[in-house]
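Field log, afternoon session.

UNIT: design team B
ACTIVITY: writing a sequence onto a fixed backbone
BACKBONE:
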């Protein structure tokens, strides 16, 4: 078991180093170019500054997600509060609409009275990860349907998209840190490869389960089934 842990730790450190090295290489490359010919070519300068800025934002997102993951792994479960899910879902919708730049239709059906007990900040982060993935992995014009309702008496949040979908062999591995089906699409859309790992940790802290069903080129549905026990307080 200890050996397995050590292997996991080593893989993780190697992954992080690789993820940080790529944007750093871009930044370093441009800096060296500018050092050799200081700002003679203004077009190159403009392009370089834009690319360096994109890459530093990427490093920033990566570090933010790593810190979030580490906090989730090391801190005790936070105190529970009543979470007004339909209100929370509305603010997640507004945020997703901004990310989509109006390129997708985002439909919401949320049971207004269905509340749960949990940590609002963590639940917001889990919902927002799933909805932003639906936007990022869907082509322009796709519809994203968000539902919040009791299903077989369990409170269930689901987010369905008409996007690229996922082949069955990948599904069980999606919540692993840095596991991506299509690395370039993930990076082009600002992904860190850590979103679903964060979701999984948050759900564990709420005794909730992630259910994924998907078909390539048709779309995906990610659902969170919360336990009855944390109170489907109406
Ligand atoms: P990333 O930052 O790469 O999106 P995530 O942990 O959020 O990382 O997701 C892991 C991988 O799962 C993604 O790289 C993508 O391949 C796949 N994925 C997640 N959500 C969806 C979705 N709605 N449709 C298609 N693929 C998805």
């Amino acid at each position: 078991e200890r050996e397995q842990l050590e292997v996991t730790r080593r893989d993780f450190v190697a992954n992080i180093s690789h993820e940080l090295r790529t944007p750093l290489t871009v930044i370093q490359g441009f800096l060296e170019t500018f050092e050799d010919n200081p700002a003679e070519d203004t077009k190159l300068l403009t392009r370089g500054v834009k690319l360096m800025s994109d890459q530093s934002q990427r490093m920033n997102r990566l570090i933010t997600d790593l810190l979030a993951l580490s906090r989730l792994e090391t801190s005790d479960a936070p105190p529970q509060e009543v979470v007004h899910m339909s209100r929370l879902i509305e603010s997640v919708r507004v945020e997703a609409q901004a990310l989509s730049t109006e390129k997708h239709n985002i439909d919401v059906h949320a049971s207004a009275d269905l509340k749960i007990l949990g940590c609002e900040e963590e639940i917001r982060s889990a919902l927002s990860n799933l909805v932003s993935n639906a936007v990022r992995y869907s082509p322009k014009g796709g519809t994203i349907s968000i539902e919040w309702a009791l299903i077989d008496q369990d409170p269930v949040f689901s987010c369905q998209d008409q996007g690229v979908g996922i082949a069955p062999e990948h599904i069980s591995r999606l919540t692993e840190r840095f596991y991506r089906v299509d690395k370039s699409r993930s990076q082009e859309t600002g992904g860190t490869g850590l979103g679903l790992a964060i979701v999984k940790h948050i759900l564990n802290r709420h005794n909730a389960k992630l259910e994924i069903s998907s078909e390539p080129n048709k779309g995906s549905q990610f659902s969170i089934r919360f336990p009855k026990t944390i109170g489907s307080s109406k």
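LOG NOTE: The CA atoms of residues 33 and 157 lie 50 Å apart.
NEXT ACTIVITY: expression trials, pending approval
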